[in-house]
């Protein structure tokens, strides 16, 4: 019987990581064992690192954006082989609740995530259910493969917003999700994709990924730029990717009559004040978007056309997990996506 030894990175207490040692044996029925090659830090990992994630008590293993190679295949697995380059859709759903039976597994009443059950991907190996594993295109790098999960989040938001040919879009916030939303909007046929942020480096990256205009909203008023670029009408669709009152207000103030604002940011302080008259006077619409549902296959196709590697600003060996998370929190480091490699 073959065995695989793995370090599994964990947030032990706020601002402190450590590693568990785990030994995997041959995969059970329906499972595959994946050797991790690249594992990306997600914003949610940072909420956990700070000990401020409302749904995730410490200690907990982390990591859910990764790529790797299958090293062992359990009985009853079809369509996946040893040596396949893959990524994982990390949600675990029941398949039997009403939402699952309607196909809306993203709303599963019993939804969980593999990393919260001890199967974090800041590790040497991850055991996974084969039905959640996706093969990567041959020419896609492991770095890009580790970003399929956040690309799926962006894909989900853009599909929910139904961005169409010739539309104008505003994306507020050029973090990884905002950048990917801007890129996917452009692929969806939006003719103008305006992105706002306070970091010139991130705005430059946004333009390289497909945004058509970048606004440093810390230096010039966003309203003025939007007025100029949309002839005073406002944009068709906006995306809020920050999670603050000011940016929520921008998202609903910047859209035209009957426009649609999609809220993607996480609000650490959810009690905000907004100009509620806009809903009736301008017949605007507001919706949220979270996670993904049937979006991985679309994101994998899109990944062929996006230069995802441009998002990777730092790569650390897995042993430097603590340093990697600190780098993500250090604004002066200018990180967008930070990868760990075993
Ligand atoms: Zn993520
Ligand atoms: Zn369910």
From TrEMBL:
Q: Which InterPro entries match?
A: ADH-like_C (IPR013149), ADH-like_N (IPR013154), ADH_Zn_CS (IPR002328), ER (IPR020843), GroES-like_sf (IPR011032), NAD(P)-bd_dom_sf (IPR036291), Zn_alcohol_dh (IPR050129)
Which cofactor does the UniProt annotation name? Zn(2+)
Matches recorded under SUPFAM superfamilies: GroES-like, NAD(P)-binding Rossmann-fold domains
Q: Which residues form the Enoyl reductase (ER) domain?
A: 16-340
Q: PROSITE patterns, alphabetically?
A: ADH_ZINC
Identify the Pfam families for this entry: ADH_N, ADH_zinc_N
Q: Keywords, A to Z?
A: Metal-binding, Oxidoreductase, Zinc
Extract the Gene3D superfamilies matched here. Answer: Medium-chain alcohol dehydrogenases, catalytic domain, NAD(P)-binding Rossmann-like Domain
Output one GO MF annotation: oxidoreductase activity
Q: Which family does it belong to?
A: Belongs to the zinc-containing alcohol dehydrogenase family.
Protein name per UniProt: Chitin-binding protein
Recite the lineage of the species. Bacteria, Bacillati, Bacillota, Clostridia, Eubacteriales
């Amino acid at each position: 019987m073959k065995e695989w030894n793995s370090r599994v990175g964990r947030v032990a207490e706020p601002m402190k990581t450590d590693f568990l040692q785990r030994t995997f044996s041959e995969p059970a029925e329906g499972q595959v064992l994946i050797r991790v090659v690249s594992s990306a830090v997600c914003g949610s990992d940072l909420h956990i690192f700070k000990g401020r994630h409302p749904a995730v008590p410490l200690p907990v293993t982390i990591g859910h954006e990764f790529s790797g190679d299958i090293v062992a295949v359990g009985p009853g697995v079809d369509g996946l082989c040893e040596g396949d380059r893959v990524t994982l859709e990390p949600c675990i759903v029941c398949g039997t609740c009403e939402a699952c039976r309607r196909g809306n597994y993203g709303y599963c009443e019993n939804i969980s995530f593999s990393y919260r059950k001890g199967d974090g991907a800041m590790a040497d190996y991850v055991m996974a259910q084969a039905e959640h594993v996706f093969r990567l295109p041959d020419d896609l790098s492991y770095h890009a493969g580790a970003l399929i999960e956040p690309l799926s989040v962006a894909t989900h938001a853009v599909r929910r917003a139904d961005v169409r040919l010739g539309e104008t879009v505003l994306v507020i916030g050029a973090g990884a999700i905002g950048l990917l939303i801007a890129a996917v909007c452009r692929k969806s046929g939006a003719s103008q994709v305006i992105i706002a942020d306070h970091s010139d480096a991130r705005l430059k990256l946004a333009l390289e990924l497909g945004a058509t205009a970048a606004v440093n909203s810390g230096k010039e008023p966003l309203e003025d730029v939007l007025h100029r670029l949309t002839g005073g009408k406002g944009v068709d669709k906006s995306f809020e990717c920050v999670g603050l009152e000011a940016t929520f207000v921008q998202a609903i103030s910047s859209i035209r009559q009957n426009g649609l604002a999609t809220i993607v940011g996480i609000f650490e302080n959810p009690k905000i004040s907004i100009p509620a008259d806009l809903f009736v006077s301008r017949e605007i619409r507001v919706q949220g978007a979270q996670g993904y549902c049937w979006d991985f296959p679309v994101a994998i196709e899109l990944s062929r056309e996006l230069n995802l590697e441009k998002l990777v600003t730092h790569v650390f060996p897995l042993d430097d997990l603590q340093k990697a998370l600190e780098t993500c929190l250090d604004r002066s480091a200018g990180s967008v996506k930070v990868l760990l490699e075993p």
